[in-house]
Design goal:
By secondary structure, the chain is an all-beta fold. The protein contains no helices and seven strands.
């Protein structure tokens, strides 16, 4: 059975890289509600808020609490730049 396709994910804030690696999916929130980014997702840019959930394997995930940010998806690459609540 071939490996499942993954996303290449980079999440940064102004000071450092918070996550860089492969993920099976990303979940976040925009003004329309909760959304998922999966491999082969349509290219898009959106403002995000509250949290980012990185599904690192089909059964494991990690969550980053944020205030807001921007997500850009293009060709199975997800780049997010975020701000934290103070």
């Amino acid at each position: 059975m071939p490996d499942s396709p993954t996303l290449t994910v980079t999440i940064r804030n102004k000071d450092k890289t918070l996550f860089k690696g492969q993920a099976y999916a990303i979940t976040s929130i925009n003004d329309k509600g909760i959304f998922d980014i999966l491999p082969e997702h349509e290219n898009f840019i959106t403002l995000i808020r509250d949290r980012i959930t990185i599904h690192t394997t089909p059964k494991e995930k990690m969550e980053i609490q944020i205030e807001n940010g921007i997500a850009r998806v293009s060709e199975n690459k997800v780049n997010m730049y975020v701000n934290f609540k103070y």
